[in-house]
Amino acid sequence: MNKLQEQIINQIKSSAPISFYEFMKMALYDKEFGYYFTSKEKIGRSGDFYTSSNISSAFGALLAKECLEMHSKIINIPLGKLHKFNNILTIIEVGAGTGQLAFDILYTMEKELNFPLAKIKYLIQEISPAMQALQKNLLAPFSSQIEWIELEELKNSPKEAIIIANEVIDSFPIHQIRWYKKELQELYIDIDGEKLTPFWQNIEKMPKNIAFYLEHLSFEFVDKQVIEINLEAIDWLKQISDVLKKGFVIIIDYGDLSDHLYSLDHFEGTLRCFFQHMTNSNYLENIGSQDITTDVNFEILMKFAQYNKLETLSFMRQADYLIKLGLLDRLQKMIELDPSSFQSLKARLAIKNFFIPGGISDHFKVLILKKI
Ligand SMILES: C[S@@+](CC[C@H](N)C(=O)[O-])C[C@H]1O[C@@H](n2cnc3c(N)ncnc32)[C@H](O)[C@@H]1O
Q: Which residues partner with 191 through β-bridges?
């Protein structure tokens, strides 16, 4: 039994069973042993999963282009004339992982788009000190542009900025609930001897925030159907709206609209774990050593964004978004510049992951919000 498991068992012994939400929060974010708080490698070949930013630098390069266009819209100066003005482009990245996306955006701004680094402020809000350490290491060449911040701190001086959250909302702890014989039940974790064991408990008195969330699903659920409720995503939308005076929010994650998310394909919900590049549903195993994640309900995000003065500009598949930003032209240029080296072939094959059917980009969606 590992230390985190022991800690969870002791907590249940000394008080009461915990909700799955509390369990997931400890498994991922316990300050000592939680998955994201340990120094174990998570993202990349020796980790448990890849993210788009760690698949190819083309991802960050295309987002850099997007950020520059958004900046030109925020300050109302045409792209071609930006060089004549000294307005600062502020990017706030939430949950920056290894720091690869920040690196690729800043690198592209300077080397490809000729946008001076001195005119960029890149703020990172990262919950995990272990991930912050990785980011600081990789981003050392851009240290004058970057600051690690808490969103809370920015509330008093909202910014004109672009906020980016790539594969972050899926890692927020969620409540799992199900309909059972016309009752609503929530998943809890108890102990059986020295073993953790899940059980469903009727929700006797519905918390207001869960009731409000459910009202927005507008979906007919069938008996025993399990769904996830991501209340932290809702709180987060308010938080980001509070720090944004004017600007854009780019949310990229796997997930869908309610119709697809709650189809019978996902009858048991979308909760899954990643361990050494394999998925499994055994969240009570490898606690603190494997990722736990769920699909994002983008319909809910759009509805609650509205309440926070964030207007939906677009919602699309990641593949379509990247193609719109010039992914195929980029690929074409790579072939023209270097048609035959192994290095170039490898880079091109990595890019193909973004648009081959059934690949990563089929499941990923991009939601762009705007605050005026
Ligand atoms: C799945 S990783 C994605 C990393 C990165 N965005 C990328 O593209 O590779 C999730 C990241 O979000 C961070 N994170 C999770 N919850 C967070 C929160 N509430 N605020 C800030 N960072 C968070 C994690 O520590 C981790 O760095």
A: 196
The alpha carbon of 337 and the centre of ligand 1 are apart by a number of angstroms equal to: 35
Which atom of ligand 1 is closest in space to residue 53's alpha carbon?
Answer: 8
Instruction: List, run by run, the mean pLDDT of 10-residue segments along the chain (372 residues).
Output: 95 96 98 97 94 95 98 97 95 98 98 97 98 98 97 94 98 97 95 95 93 89 95 98 97 95 92 96 97 98 97 96 95 89 90 82 92 90
Residue 26 domain flag: yes
- Could you tell me if 177 and 291 lie in one domain? yes
Give the distance (Å) from ligand 1 centre to CA of residue 92.
13
Query: 185 and 285 share a domain?
Result: yes
Cβ distance 35 to 293 under 8 Å?
Answer: no
d(CA 52, CA 351) in angstroms, rounded, equals 10
267 and 338, same domain (yes or no): no
- What domain range is 336 assigned to? 320-354
Please name the residue whose Cα sits nearest to atom 22 of ligand 1.
95
Which residues make Cβ contacts (< 8 Å) with residue 260, sequence separation at least 6?
Answer: none
| Best probe residue, ligand 1, of 37, 134, 168 (max atoms within 8 Å of C-beta) | 168
- Residue 86 CA, ligand 1 centroid: distance in Å: 31
44 burial (CB, 10 Å; 0-12 / 13-18 / 19+) is middle
Do 47 and 187 belong to one domain?
yes
Q: For residue 95, how far is its CA from the centre of ligand 1 (angstroms)?
A: 3
Q: Ligand 1 within 6 A of 94 CB?
A: yes
